[in-house]
Recover the amino acids of this structure.
């Protein structure tokens, strides 16, 4: 496993300093790949899209998961609503992508069909106009991911002891104050995990974009993960692709640093 | 009454969300029942003039030879999960109980598989597979899937074994059990929950994988199922009733697995966060 996973990461870093088409011998060209990347407009768009993805996955699946988890607990029909949000978890990203491609189709899609039923004379082409396509895909991603985050927050809410909440209510706090001052701080460990995972996963989104738009039209909905794939395995710019993946990984590592530190610190207790 | 009124907005929002969450599932099922003619001439909520699901299914299986890919993926999922269970349970045990001295390296390995993007080692693995003649072979696919899955599984097993009291192992030691013996007769028999978690998560992951299947395989006899389904869409969108039929057909195994092992799903979440 070390051979299959750790060594390649080092090797990847090494390749990122070369110009290499995958067949002939690699040619060393220093940090040129990175310089080219800095001025590549497609990578610029791709970077912007990646940031959009990350920002909005924090808002929709993560925050949405929290909101749903908070409001659904103790409601009549709790289990019914929970299982509804659970359904998308059982199907793959590819399936999600295909289902939403159909939903969002311009002529025969369900969403435009609904708009027509409601008498709204709009017919947006969700997947080919910029920047609507990125948001459409974020929506599909939310549909798939909300359940996971909801489950995690529900677990977190379940572990909060009753006493501090009761103390709060006796002191005259309303529901909102109880939530902000007691429940939310006590959820912090789970929130860290959910936020880190949501961000890391949104950097890694590949399947949904590949299925729904292939990064198109004209690379307008690419994220770094897709750009890397296109450069490497359709254009065979191996060195350049490696450089993109190095940047991608660096960002992921920086973002998850807090999480990793917390996990390793806690793990030290066992030893 | 006032209580009910206060809750009303929450219910309204939840009902809208429920509608949004169910609509894609329902309309996809409906589409898979339609023939191509019905699909083009009807709007999305109309019932098909005749049930076409099985005809669609036969077409899809014959034209795209999906059964080959289905067999491949079944093999990858089963073999990969088996390898992972054997390797990760032993490794998890040795990390927790034998406490080796290279903790940091171990964590690097664990995080390399769970947090770092796969893109980081895609190119080197691709190259390695080419030089070792593993590219586009079933052995290669099983190998890479197991390697990718081990970190998470190791995490799960390690988390589970730390919850087993140390006294139990010490008792086993006093009775004359070496590490190997205590693993096989004390720890392994208790390992059903983590094994179920690993089986559920990893078999599903392997089944649903697109990226590695696309990069490391080319031939019909090697390609996993999701790659086959994803390439059905093509640039023009493809024949949607057929594609939907394929989507539903290929999602059945993972849905069944989820239904069978659903009580372990929550447990898996707990283990993967709190461990």
């Amino acid at each position: 496993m070390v051979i299959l996973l750790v060594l390649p990461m080092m090797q990847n870093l090494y390749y990122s300093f070369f110009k290499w088409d995958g067949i002939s011998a690699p040619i060393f060209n220093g940090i040129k790949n990175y310089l080219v990347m800095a001025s590549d407009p497609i990578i610029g768009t791709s970077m912007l899209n990646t940031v959009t993805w990350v920002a909005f996955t924090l808002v929709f699946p993560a925050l949405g998961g929290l909101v749903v988890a908070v409001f659904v607990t103790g409601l009549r029909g709790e289990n019914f609503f929970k299982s509804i949000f659970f359904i998308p978890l059982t199907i793959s990203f590819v399936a999600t992508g295909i289902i939403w491609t159909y939903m969002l189709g311009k002529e025969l899609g369900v969403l435009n069909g609904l708009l027509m039923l409601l008498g709204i004379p709009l017919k947006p082409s969700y997947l080919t106009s910029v920047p609507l396509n990125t948001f459409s895909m974020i929506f599909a991603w939310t549909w798939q991911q909300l359940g996971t985050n909801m489950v995690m927050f529900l677990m977190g809410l379940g572990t909060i002891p009753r006493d501090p909440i009761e103390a709060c209510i006796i002191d005259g706090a309303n529901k909102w104050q109880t939530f902000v001052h007691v429940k939310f701080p006590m959820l912090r460990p789970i929130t860290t995990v959910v936020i880190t995972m949501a961000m890391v996963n949104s950097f890694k989104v590949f399947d949904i974009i590949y299925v729904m738009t292939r990064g198109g039209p004209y690379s307008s909905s690419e994220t770094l993960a897709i750009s890397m794939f296109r450069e490497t395995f359709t254009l065979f710019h191996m060195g350049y692709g490696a450089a993109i993946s190095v940047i991608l990984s660096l960002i992921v590592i920086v973002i998850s640093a807090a999480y990793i530190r917390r996990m390793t610190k806690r793990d030290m207790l066992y030893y | 009454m006032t209580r009910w009124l206060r809750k009303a907005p929450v219910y309204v929002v939840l009902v809208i969300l429920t509608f949004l969450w169910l609509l894609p599932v329902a309309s996809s099922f409906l589409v898979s029942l339609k023939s191509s003619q019905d699909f083009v001439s009807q709007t999305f909520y109309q019932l098909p003039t005749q049930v076409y699901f099985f005809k669609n299914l036969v077409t899809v299986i014959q034209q795209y030879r999906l059964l080959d890919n289905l067999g491949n993926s079944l093999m990858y999922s089963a073999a990969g999960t088996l390898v992972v269970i054997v390797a990760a349970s032993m490794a998890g045990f040795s990390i927790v109980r034998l406490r080796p001295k290279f903790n940091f390296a171990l964590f690097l390995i664990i995080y390399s598989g769970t947090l770092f993007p796969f893109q980081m080692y895609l190119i080197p693995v691709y190259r390695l597979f080419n030089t070792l003649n593993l590219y586009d072979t079933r052995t290669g696919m099983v190998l890479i899937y197991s390697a990718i899955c081990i970190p998470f599984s190791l995490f799960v097993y390690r988390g589970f074994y730390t919850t087993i009291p140390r006294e139990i192992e010490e008792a086993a030691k006093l009775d004359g059990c070496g590490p190997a013996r205590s693993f096989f007769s004390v720890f392994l028999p208790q390992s059903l929950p983590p094994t179920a978690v690993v089986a559920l998560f990893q078999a599903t992951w392997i089944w649903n994988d697109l990226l590695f299947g696309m990069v490391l395989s080319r031939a019909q006899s090697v390609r996993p199922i999701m790659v086959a389904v994803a390439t059905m869409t093509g640039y023009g969108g493809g024949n949607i009733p057929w594609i939907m039929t394929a989507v539903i057909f290929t999602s059945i195994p993972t849905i069944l697995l989820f239904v069978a092992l659903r009580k372990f799903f929550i447990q898996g979440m707990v283990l993967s966060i709190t461990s």
